[in-house]
Amino acid sequence: MKTTEIVKFLSRQDKWYLGGGNNLSWAPTFPAWLHFPGLWDEAIYFNYSLAPLYTITILDHLGHNVHLRLKHQLWDPSNLERHFSSDIQKLEIIEKNVCLPDEVLVSELEITSANNAEQTFHVIAWTVQENHRTEGIKSISDIKATKDGVSFHTTLSPKKRREIALLCELSISNQSDSFCVQSSEDTVIQPHWHLTPFYNLWSDHLNNTINVSGNDKGLIFMGIHKRVVLSPGSNKKLVVRFRASTNKLQGYVRGGFGSSLLQSNKNWKSYFENVPNFACSDEFFTRYYWHRWYGLKLMTLPRGETNYSHPAICEGIGYFRAPISYSAHCHMRETRWMTSPDIAQGSLLNFVAGQRDNNSYPGYIDPHGDREEMFYHANWGASVLEVHRIHHDQGFLDSAYKSLTKYCEYFDRERDSEGSGLYDIHNHYETGQEYMSRYTAVSPDADKVHWGEQIRLKGVDVTVYIYELKKALVEMASILRRPDRERRMWKEGYKKTKASMLREMWDPHEEMFFDINPQTGERTRIMAATCFYPYMTDIVSENHVNGLRRHLLNPDEFWTPYPIPSTSVNDPTFSAGGLWKGKRMNCPWNGRVWPMTNSHIAEALAETAIHFDSSLRPIVAEFIRKFICMMFYDGDVKRPNCFEHYHPYTGKPSAFRGVDDYQHSWVVDLILKYMAGIRPKSDSIIIDPFPFGLKWLEVSKIMIRGHSMEVRIDEESFTVRVDDRPPEVSVLGKPLEIAI
Description:
Elements: H1 3-9, E1 18-19, E2 24-26, E3 38-39, E4 43-45, E5 48-50, E6 54-59, E7 69-76, E8 79-86, E9 91-100, E10 104-113, E11 119-132, E12 138-146, E13 149-156, E14 164-172, E15 178-184, H2 198-201, E16 209-211, E17 217-230, E18 235-245, H3 259-273, E19 277-280, H4 283-298, E20 300-301, E21 312-313, H5 325-335, H6 342-353, H7 380-388, H8 394-414, E22 424-425, H9 437-440, E23 457-458, H10 460-479, H11 484-505, E24 506-507, E25 512-513, E26 516-517, E27 522-523, H12 545-552, E28 579-580, E29 583-584, H13 595-611, H14 617-630, H15 668-675, E30 678-680, E31 684-687, E32 696-704, E33 707-714, E34 717-722, E35 728-731, E36 736-739
Parallel strand pairs: 15-16
Antiparallel strand pairs: 1-2, 2-4, 3-6, 4-5, 6-11, 7-8, 8-9, 9-10, 10-18, 11-17, 12-13, 13-14, 14-18, 15-17, 19-32, 20-21, 22-23, 24-25, 26-27, 28-29, 30-31, 31-36, 32-33, 33-34, 34-35
Helix pairs in contact: 1-3, 5-6, 5-7, 6-8, 7-10, 8-10, 10-11, 13-14
């Protein structure tokens, strides 16, 4: 697919998120004011709420509000375009909204008159900001207003978090004709003109005053005004900008009408140029591939003078707009395919920089400070090696090795004090998988407690992660030429864990791995999706394959129409609708399908198919197909999504959460590794596409350790080209291994 076509290819009518891969984004979870010009609903700076932003009101020559009707909306990653009209005044307005990389939100308006007489209108861009200095929530200061615009400092002070100061500016193109700043006692905060003090003060213009006296608590209204004269059939173009920054606004280049849209489009096209190009005969896969890359950029934070010393991916919008350890290892797998390793490496290095005194990693990285109670488990070791296999970088590997050595020591010291080789879960939050019977199996109150050591459960998933970490440390130590004793230590560690898992966690009768209750030493016998995580590794052998088939592929347990539920269907607590003890929960893991889990299960199935049972290869393709097709509204190929969790029988998402484009799984990696078949190894590349039944597939601009690669699949055959070497040809089921 041509890179120039991707932005347009992703266009749709039901979306509104705006971002440019920077600190500021506009992605309100439940927008209430999309039918008003401007961007009134909540924006997010870092992970701080900034609301409201601004709206745009149009008055006629008598000062009457021109009521606009939203006729049409069209979105793509670079632009939210809305068409408004007024039947009485015969106005047509096209508004294009973008979020630029320099932390500016822009609304470009083209106003056209179909009236047969000249008309005069007044365009007012305005905002209202809460000012509650005495309550320490939000305060406004240093307000300046001229014909160039209105600027102000806002201090955001959420409860239990460090405050952040922003400098904001609202401006309109070619200077305003008038302005006004007026304080007010509290009223409802909505973008209605009649609620503003300007409504009663209006007299053909705003009064060019700043009046904020006595306003330690209340509201501050700020507006800028532009007079527009339209002759019959003519149009006028205006640009309204809202900038928020922790830095000074000096040096900001505004540009004329159309420049913001061009800049936003260029920003997104440039981004898509730096990821592998992909297309195939199945539009669901093609669209989801590019939609996923869009979501990753939307959630990107650049490096800055904060705790984000490296660029990284946030887990989602709103509260989740921060690097979170539960999902960061997923981001490493996805973004490793970019031409630059910066984001993939940064997704770990921010946690390395924030490593705690006890050598654990923070669970959630705020721009400033630390949420000391939060911790999440993650498969760091395997993800580091996955990044290194595409981008050889000794410096990164050395930093990762030193930090992960301490991280591993933390687990051996505090999560396995008895030296069993199996590792503890201390509360249901730290796995990112709340409300499951796997926790209440060791404590009936496990669902009532929060952070800290509240329970002890030897977890299959956690133990797999540390097994993978110690194996990775062996390989990293070898590459870095660390002392032999270090390699022996890590090797002895992972061998011990493997033996303990096979002896203690594997149930030969049930043919399944189970968590262990350390108080009794017994298996919990709770069937959870995490029980299949060992199949991602070499812990298992051909002796375990039947257990995978018996349970994972069983529709009465896990193989639902949209597999797989996080807890087995036959568990007494199972709820497809997300009810836990009769109450709908935000994050239930007692039966919902989570993309995070499905990413792991796809790896488990694929690894088993590759090493032990090739007859599973079509099932791997079936599973990944169902997984991806689940993440489309009502099966509509034009409307991909990624919510936190889904219904295992209908595929319906957790839309009530309002958190779309949630990045706590990996999908691009699955497409490139198993659909295109590209699996980088330490000194070679395996090309081994799985049988997805595609008529054709093309992937190019794959960069692996300085070598470029292209893969083309035509039904049962595939062709591989590396650099300028002669192409190599094979058929599905007969892998190629190419040395690089």
